[in-house]
Amino acid sequence: MKMLFAETPAPKLNLTKKLLLLNWPFLLLVTAIALVGAGALYSVAGGALDPWASRHVVRFCFGLALLFAVAFSDIRWWLRGAYPLYLVALFLMLLVPLIGVESGGARRWLGYGEFSFQPSEMMKIALVLALARYYQWLPPEKIWRPDALVPPVLMIGLPLLLALAQPDLGTAMLFAVIGGGLLFLAGVSWFYFGAVIVGVVVALPHAWEKLHDYQRERVLTFIDPERDPLGSGYHILQSKIAIGSGGFAGKGFMQGTQAQLNFLPEKHTDFIFTMFAEEMGFIGAVALLALYLLTLVFITYMALRCRSTFARLVAAGMGLCLFTYVFINVAMVTGLVPVVGVPLPLVSYGGTSMLTMIVGLGFVLNAHVNRRVTFRREEAGTLW
Known about the structure:
By secondary structure, the protein is mainly α. It contains 14 helices and 5 strands. The strands form 2 sheets. Strands 2-3-4 form a 3-stranded antiparallel sheet. It has a two-stranded antiparallel sheet with strand order 1-5.
């Protein structure tokens, strides 16, 4: 059935008014975090802009252009296009095992020539938009009904299973946390979350048997890193040594021995927080985490001010994505969770992950700019 949308009367916003409505302190926070990343990558390269710091800055500037484009776009476009975007992202993920590019034993990228990207990154945004659209039209009295959970569970489960097949446990975890978090924020009963937790516990023995050898090794290494100090436990042991050696005030910019002498692996991507903590110490690490925390406070504030369910859940979903990235990365490098290969947002080197995060933050600003807009269904019928 055709779905028509109409918004409550609201003044038309020209570009000048949109610029005034933009949350500029939030943008300054995002820029500050990206500059921390540029400085860290400059240090990792031994005081050189190439190959990482300069590209990081260029990508961030390009990402800012995308952020403004998304922030100033009509929110109704994204409401109408949420499901088509999700289907495109799902189709691209389905192509990965067929024609994807393999790297490091995993097939996660689609590429042509020198250009490559991860469809799973696009899916993180598409999943948030699709779930937000679904709950925009779901009557509150139906949220608790079991049949109302089928569509969102399928939306979450399909990309999650495809991510596990790549294999990409970190991305699968992100899908689960973001999707589950949005269901909780939408008002789904605690009973269903409890049932899922019990089901996961019961399925753990079977899931352990299905894990790849290297994934099992990561879990065992997480439990006891010293069982293989020069092999699977090397990453986390070197990370803990680097963080501990930084002390309270750190060794100083470009003075971290674990990073500069190449004892620390993946120091420009997954373990960049370790390198930063070694050089800047406890003070620097807490300051960086405080920037992330303040960013999440701003996102929460902007989400709560939105009148429509769609805008509120989009902003909250992107905030969940940022929180999950930061939490898993920091917990990973400090030995609190197994190593799963999740970058630190806006700080780690990486093109697709950075642009995805900046576009996601653009959707937060879009929700904020359009916070007074609400929608109504013109026709009753299917929720789809």
